[in-house]
């Protein structure tokens, strides 16, 4: 890739040679990156903005002083397809989990309806592309945690009927049928029922998301699933040894079956020094520990929890307990995964509004920087388009095809 | 009323001319002083099977959850399955989503979702015969394709757990009517069969009605208290339905509607869909059925046969009650009692405001209306009473389709106003 970059530079410099100043070469790359970014479908597979829909102060249609996502900033950042995450605490289970999940699904639909001039709901890759041709942002939904089905496979269908297009098999805690990466293994991966759930997801055309799950759950899901998997918001363990990230071996196995790893921008998942310092500062309790504390203080108020987490993190950074992390680490993770498995298996899963963003990626308006950085690294336009969104769309198409096949068999 | 009605209808029918193959038979019938029974039977059959017959309330859903019930196979018990719907010319059916009023909160939501899913699954299993629809136009389209239209109604506002997000989720999954309560009050509306605590609809209850209007979910006032009915009537921007209620003037049950209520419902474009339950059709039966010994004996027998299986309970309850009638322990009620209620309501408010809401698989059916195959008898009885074919068509289904279209129009207006 570095060789490619120097080639690009030679060509650009040669064209500009003698006519323009040196800075103009950089401008040419910026222009190319800008044009490429804003003509691509930029699809983010994981955003926790849904939680904010329940906060009175939040308006998706206006530029907000806090958080990472709203329509004006999505427009500015060229983000034109977004998976809103349906998430509740993993310790809420059974019927209450189902009802809360329904409330969030409804909140997404209501917001899309409210801002129908800018946004349209999409269930398929084709609908995402159609939204793009209409100049609208495509809104999709993913359920972040299998606990929300209330241990009932029928809810997979119901969520699917309501428009959910992926489900993360677990969140921070094990659910009744799958082990999480951040909990003590209780099922040795997926239980038999968990395997049935994966098959039902295949049937319903719901992407199987292995972010958050234990390594064993990942391999079990990979074996059972008839469609490629996604890791909707996970980064590379080789660069930052966090259980939430994927080992090179896992990324290879995922890619070998056509899957995509969508890189998460959370600082403690992309930067080893930060992760180490964070664990030290939180007494080894890590992200889960810090969140648990905030949840205790805030009760059901997710906005409050998020604010507390952000304030804590900022304070620790100011006190020098946590190192600064640059947005360029995101690009390092993308590049690592691309070198490992090629550009066809990497995407973007920011975790905006649900994680602590590195400096320079303060919100979704900064997304064009990723495109520019990849251009500067010498990535081809085709490869960059794939990473920005086409890989995920291609995978959605495959999942849809498998679903049609399985339903036809019935 | 009859002869005059017939004459008027004759002009309407000949004025329309194109309409039906029944026209010749109709004209023929007029020419002879006493039409032959066969002529009317044939005409009724033709009319019935050319009409869209809509039933706004069936409890068959409970059976879907009991075990391996297959809607596609003729069942030896109960009243509804695809073969019998076809045989009886039942073209559109509202499957009721129901759980007892005592189950509330998230548990109620989960159970309701399970039932909605069960309906959707049964429909998916039989794509050649039945299709899930949500609009009047889709009901007509299903008919064109020779398929039964399946719809869903939530029987009891307790199932939304006081959460408009849940109501919207139900609507998104295809629910198109909701009775504001079942037998018990819910958190925001009084039931006709409970002690009033809200004086009708609470403020939140009014919000529920308004949101139903916006979503295009029909406001169903069967089961609610009289005050709740009037509150809903005042708040709703769309016509209401009473999906399975009969006439209190004939049988003084709280679950039925007074003449005044029927008039007020009709004045706002609504429809009362007559319930076939013998305890709502016949006051004599209702009173006899209040005998605590009989009630207990039936309840015990149902428990013995079914345990906690809700679908089985409803069906065996009907069967055991029928056995009691045959043993002379309860009065016998004929299906003609349904016609009396229809006729009473028609005389009161005209044929535009009456429909069919059987309560099949959820109530005790009169003799001669054991299951959906018997529905053509209603058409024949109405023709024999001298009803015009148009009026019969309206009662069989067109009135309900008209309310659906109107509810859809109001929904579109409210959505575009926002």
Give a verbal description of the structure.
The complex is a heterodimer of chains A (410) and B (418). In chain A, 50% of the residues lie in helices and 10% in strands. Chain A is an alpha/beta fold and 410 residues long. In chain A, helix 1 (2-16) crosses helix 2 (23-39) and helix 2 (23-39) crosses helix 15. The longest helix of chain A has 29 residues, at 381-409. Chain A is globular, with a radius of gyration of 21 Å. Chain A starts with a helix and ends with a helix. Chain B has 418 residues and is of the alpha/beta class. Helix content of chain B is 52%, strand content 9%. Chain B has helices spanning 2-16, 22-31, 37-50, 61-66, 82-87, 105-125, 136-144, 164-172, 203-215, 226-235, 259-267, 278-281, 283-288, 292-306, 310-326, 336-349, 376-384, 389-417, and strands at residues 54-58, 92-97, 130-132, 148-155, 175-179, 218-220, 241-242, 271-274, 354-356. In chain B, the strands form two sheets. In chain B, strands 1, 2, 3, 4, 5 and 6 form a six-stranded parallel β-sheet that branches. In chain B, helix 14 (292-306) packs across helix 15. Classes of the chains: A alpha/beta (410), B alpha/beta (418). Chain A binds chain B through residues 94-96, 98-99, 102-103, 105-107, 109-110, 150, 152, 154-155, 157-158, 161-162, and chain B through 105-107, 109-110, 113-114, 116-117, 120-121, 161, 163, 165-166, 168-169, 172-173.
């Amino acid at each position: 890739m570095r060789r490619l970059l120097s080639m690009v530079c030679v060509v650009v410099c040669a064209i500009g040679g003698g006519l323009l100043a040196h800075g103009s070469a950089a401008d040419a790359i910026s222009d190319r990156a800008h044009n490429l970014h804003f003509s691509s479908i930029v699809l983010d597979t994981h955003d926790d903005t849904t939680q904010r829909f329940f906060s009175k102060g939040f308006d998706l249609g206006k530029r907000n002083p806090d958080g990472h996502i709203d329509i004006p900033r999505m427009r500015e950042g060229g983000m034109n397809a977004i998976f809103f995450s349906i998430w509740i605490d993993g310790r809420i289970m059974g019927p209450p989990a189902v009802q809360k999940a329904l409330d969030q699904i409804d909140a997404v639909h209501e917001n899309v309806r409210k801002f129908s001039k800018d946004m349209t709901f999409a269930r398929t890759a084709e609908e995402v592309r159609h939204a793009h041709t209409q100049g609208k942002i495509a809104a999709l939904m993913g359920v972040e945690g299998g606990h929300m089905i209330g241990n009932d496979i029928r809810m997979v269908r119901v969520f699917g009927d309501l428009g959910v297009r992926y489900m993360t098999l677990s969140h921070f805690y094990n659910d009744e049928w799958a082990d999480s990466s951040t909990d003590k293994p209780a099922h040795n991966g997926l239980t038999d029922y968990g395997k049935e759930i994966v098959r039902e997801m295949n049937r319903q055309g719901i992407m199987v998301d292995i972010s958050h799950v234990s390594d064993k759950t990942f391999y079990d899901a990979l074996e059972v699933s008839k469609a490629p998997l996604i890791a909707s918001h996970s980064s590379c363990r080789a660069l930052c040894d966090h259980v939430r990230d994927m080992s090179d071996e896992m990324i290879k196995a995922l890619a070998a079956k056509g899957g995509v790893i969508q890189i998460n921008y959370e600082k403690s998942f992309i930067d080893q020094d930060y992760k180490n310092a964070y664990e030290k500062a939180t007494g080894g309790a890590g992200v889960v520990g810090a969140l648990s504390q905030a949840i205790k203080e805030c009760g059901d108020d997710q906005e409050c929890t998020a604010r507390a987490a952000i304030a804590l993190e900022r304070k620790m950074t100011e006190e020098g307990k946590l190192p600064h992390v640059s947005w360029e680490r995101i690009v390092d993770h993308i590049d690592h995964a691309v070198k490992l498995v090629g550009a066809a298996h990497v995407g973007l899963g920011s975790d905006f509004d649900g994680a602590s963003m590195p400096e320079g990626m303060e919100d979704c308006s900064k997304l064009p920087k990723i495109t520019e950085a990849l251009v500067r690294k010498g990535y081809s336009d085709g490869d960059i388009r794939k990473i920005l969104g086409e890989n995920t769309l291609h995978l959605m198409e495959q999942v849809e095809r498998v679903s049609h096949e399985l339903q036809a068999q019935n | 009323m009859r002869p005059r009605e017939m004459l008027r209808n004759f002009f309407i029918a000949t004025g329309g001319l194109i309409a039906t193959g029944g026209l010749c038979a109709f004209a023929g019938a007029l020419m002879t002083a006493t039409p032959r029974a066969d002529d009317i039977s044939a005409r009724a059959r033709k009319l019935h099977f050319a009409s869209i017959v809509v039933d706004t309330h069936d409890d068959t859903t409970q059976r879907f959850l009991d075990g391996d019930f297959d809607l596609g196979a003729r069942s030896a018990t109960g009243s509804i399955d695809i073969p019998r719907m076809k045989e009886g010319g039942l073209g559109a059916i509202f499957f009721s989503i129901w759980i007892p009023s005592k189950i509330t909160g998230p548990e109620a939501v989960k159970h309701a979702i399970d039932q909605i899913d069960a309906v959707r699954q049964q429909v998916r299993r039989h794509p050649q015969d039945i299709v899930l629809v949500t609009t009047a136009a889709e009901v007509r389209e299903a008919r064109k394709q020779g398929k039964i239209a399946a719809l869903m109604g939530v029987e009891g506002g307790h199932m939304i757990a006081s959460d408009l997000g849940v109501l919207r989720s139900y609507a998104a999954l295809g629910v198109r009517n909701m009775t504001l309560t079942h037998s018990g009050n819910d958190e925001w509306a009084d039931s006709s069969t409970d002690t009033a605590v809200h004086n009708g609809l609470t403020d939140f209850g009014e919000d529920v009605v308004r949101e139903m209007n916006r979503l295009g979910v029909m406001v169903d006032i069967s089961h609610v208290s009289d005050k709740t009915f009037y509150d809903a009537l005042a708040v709703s921007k769309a016509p209401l339905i009473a999906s399975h209620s009969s006439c209190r003037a004939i049988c003084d049950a709280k679950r039925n509607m007074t003449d005044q209520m029927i008039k007020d419902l009709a004045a706002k474009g609504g429809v009362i869909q007559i319930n076939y339950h013998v305890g709502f059709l016949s006051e004599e039966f209702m009173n006899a059925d209040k005998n605590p010994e009989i009630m207990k004996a039936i309840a015990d027998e149902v428990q013995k046969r079914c345990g906690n299986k809700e679908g089985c309970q409803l069906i065996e309850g009907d069967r055991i009650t029928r056995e009691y009638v045959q043993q002379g322990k309860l009065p016998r009620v004929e299906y003609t009692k349904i016609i009396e209620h229809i006729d009473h309501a028609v005389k009161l408010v005209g044929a535009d405001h009456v429909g069919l809401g059987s309560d099949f698989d959820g109530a005790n059916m009169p003799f001669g209306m054991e299951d959906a195959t018997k529905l053509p008898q209603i058409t024949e009885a109405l023709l024999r009473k001298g009803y015009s074919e148009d009026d019969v068509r309206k009662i069989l289904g067109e009135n309900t389709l008209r309310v659906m279209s109107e509810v859809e129009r109001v929904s579109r207006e409210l959505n575009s106003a926002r």
